[in-house]
Amino acid sequence: MADATRAASLDDATLAEIRLALAPDIAMSAVFDGWSEAALLAAAEGVGVKPALARLAYKGGAMDMIDGWVDWVDTMMAAEFADGRLDAMPVRERIRELVQFRLDAIAGMEEALQRAMAVQAMPQNVAAAIKQGWSSADRMWRLAGDAATDYNHYTKRAILVSIYGATLAIFAGDESEGKADTRAFLDRRIENVMQFEKAKARLLADRETFDVARFLGRLRYPQR
Predict the structure, then answer these.
(1) Do 198 and 138 belong to one domain?
(2) Which UniProt keywords apply (predicted)?
(3) Cβ atoms < 10 Å from Cβ of 73
(4) What range defines the domain where residue 13 resides?
(5) How high is the pLDDT of residue 126?
(6) How many contiguous H segments (helices) and E segments (strands) does the chain have?
(7) Is 0.85 surpassed by the pTM of this model?
(8) Are residues 128 and 17 in the same domain?
(9) CATH number of the domain that 148 lies in?
(10) How many other CB atoms are found less than 10 A from the CB of residue 84?
(11) Same domain flag for 140 and 193
(12) Which of 118, 145, 195, 216: CA 20 to 30 A from 95?
């Protein structure tokens, strides 16, 4: 009955909505079939979408399916934290919560993740994979309340792409109870970044003090 209701709700859906509806089922099928047409068709059958329509929604092959899965996680994350509860947390806790939610959302699909990372690592897919990671990092920082428009906008996202990518790699092969090793790894990486940010802030403050002092000196002793 639930599957029939789900299928009926997609009768008038847009391609974007069909992509989103198929995404988690494709990922589950990818555990066994890889990111292939077989996974796409299995998901379409499970959701009640016609094969031709499923192919139209995902006409870009494996990377397109992976992109749909990433977008599904992004959408779930945005809905989960739409209540604004992150606002009361320190920045490091906001980022930890966002990354951990993403990991929890794909728990049980580690094999699909490993297969996805193998596809992303192919030379022809590296640029698209970087774009996927950057998009997710940007969404996380925006949910975390980041409004930077200077170089910090880019450095924050680049650092988070690194943290998230490395954590996913640990997560994919983590067999510890409750993914304890992944959680510990994530905590260490975030702590390392926080220490780096503190050191950078001190360095910039020292540079600013030095520059101001030199400027005032020039005012007092103008160069001839």
Answers:
(1) yes
(2) Lipid-binding, Transit peptide, Ubiquinone biosynthesis
(3) 20
(4) 1-59
(5) 96
(6) 10, 0
(7) no
(8) no
(9) 1.10.357
(10) 9
(11) yes
(12) 118
